[in-house]
Amino acid sequence: MLSFKSYIKPKNIKEAYDLLQNNNAEIIGGATFLRLSNRKVDLAIDLIDAGLDYIKDTEENVEIGSMVTISEFEENPILSNLFNGYLKNVAETILSFQMRNIITIGGTLYPKYGFSDLITALLVLNTDIYLYHSGKISLEEYLKTKVHKDILEKIVIKKEKLKATFHYIRNSEYDFSILNVAVSKGKKVKIAVGARPGVATLAYKAMEYLNKNGLNENNIKEAAKIAAEEIVFADDIKTSKEYRKVVCEALVRRALLEVM
Length: 260
Ligand SMILES: Cc1cc2nc3c(=O)[nH]c(=O)nc-3n(C[C@H](O)[C@H](O)[C@H](O)COP(=O)(O)OP(=O)(O)OC[C@H]3O[C@@H](n4cnc5c(N)ncnc54)[C@H](O)[C@@H]3O)c2cc1C
Known about the structure:
Layout: E1 3-8, H1 13-20, E2 25-28, E3 40-46, E4 55-57, E5 61-65, H2 70-75, H3 77-81, H4 86-91, H5 97-100, H6 105-109, H7 117-123, E6 127-131, E7 135-138, H8 139-142, E8 152-158, E9 163-169, E10 179-185, E11 189-194, E12 201-202, H9 204-213, H10 217-230, H11 241-259
Parallel strand pairs: 1-3, 2-3
Antiparallel strand pairs: 4-5, 5-8, 6-7, 6-8, 9-10, 10-11, 11-12
Helix pairs in contact: 9-10, 10-11
This protein binds flavin-adenine dinucleotide.
The site of flavin-adenine dinucleotide has 29 residues, from strand 2, helix 6 and helix 7.
């Protein structure tokens, strides 16, 4: 069971950050994943009153505060229309609407969970992460960087003309993905593979191959093979790395054909 000695709702992110520097303090987003743990936390810092629940539409970007919930992706007119409904479609695949009403963007991106569907989906967009202490960093870099005791303030998604699609395989609808794949096609093609079961990564060699040789059925077949070869998979309780490799090739091919 998870238990807190003290619980506090700071009024702004600076206050939250200063409190977080205490030993055994923990940020709370929606607490959906946290509550599954068996720990005693001295200080629980709930961001609910810290002014991080906003979606701002600017000419070039959409800014999403870390306390925005996943269900707001489905309901917010800016986000649900962005990239032809791509983000809305991905959000709808995550658990139930009731859970999505609680799960936050901060709690989804900051911990870099390997099984995350949204991280894979955002990786093929131009997404930046804003950390209170460490500042701005692209999502791609963030996934490779060790961050300690910081707070995710917001994410910023660039509005671009691109086609994007998301594919996954699960044992049942409410289960975690066994593998997920996102592909976008703007000026260049981007391919991300997640739930490997490690956190999502771009398929750099496959992307380079396609961006050099162009999108056609033969090149897509080849790029899907390259992606399955270059991505590192592992075994877990759900399946084997060999199975993930086979699924990866099929999902990448399907996703690329869709955006072609
Ligand atoms: C049963 C279950 C099934 C799930 N299935 C899926 C699935 O199929 N696909 C999928 O993509 N996701 C799935 N998730 C994960 C979900 O999408 C969220 O990533 C997760 O539940 C955390 O969201 P939360 O807002 O409740 O964060 P919390 O549980 O509150 O926090 C999670 C971690 O992030 C930290 N944190 C939270 N907010 C911030 C912040 N702003 N800055 C810094 N640190 C922060 C917390 O300290 C904690 O360590 C599932 C979760 C559960 C509980």
